[in-house]
Amino acid sequence: MLNNLVLNRFQGQSSSGAPGADVRVCDAEANVCYLLAGWAVHKEKERLQGCSDCLSVICGDPGEVPADSQLTVMKSYGGLTYPSALVYSAVQVAESVFRSHQAKLRSCCNVESMLNEQFCSLVCYIGLPSCHDDVLQNIIKRYFRLRIHAYGKWLTDKYKSTHDSTQHGSRSAYCRTKVK
Predict the structure, then answer these.
(1) CB atoms < 10 A from the CB of 176, how many?
(2) Pairwise CA distance, residues 168 & 108, whole Å
(3) 82 with 103: CB under 8 angstroms?
(4) What is the pLDDT of residues 36-73, one digit of tens each?
């Protein structure tokens, strides 16, 4: 079966923040993206209940892994799921969409749907099985949800490190104590 991911990306643009612009990631970040893509595939496999057509589209062969899979290979011990090349390329586009909109995420409401809409405007799917036509979109939704959670945690930790994060029982206890 022929599986293609057609990118309607703006070719030749720099990482200026425009939607679909190529955003470069370092090797460590690419390895983490591959590991997260494998996690999203593993979670989606539970929903598919053994549909061989869909599993062949989303699952990769551990023998044929890209260079970005070093972290997955090191952590695997035979138990981690390897994403297919199709899924990994979709996750790379999703990461590019996330990074190009990262500055707007704090002020935007309904972030997940905005990112999914941007991703869908850049990518169309060809050759996916008709039994579960939303399989790749579900993987990307899962990836965005995890990515938003990680970004929110990073923002919270950054805020806590720059502000007084001392916990007090009440506002009046805070006023009466000099503990910092």
Answers:
(1) 9
(2) 31
(3) no
(4) 888 898 888 888 877 888 888 888 777 777 767 667 76
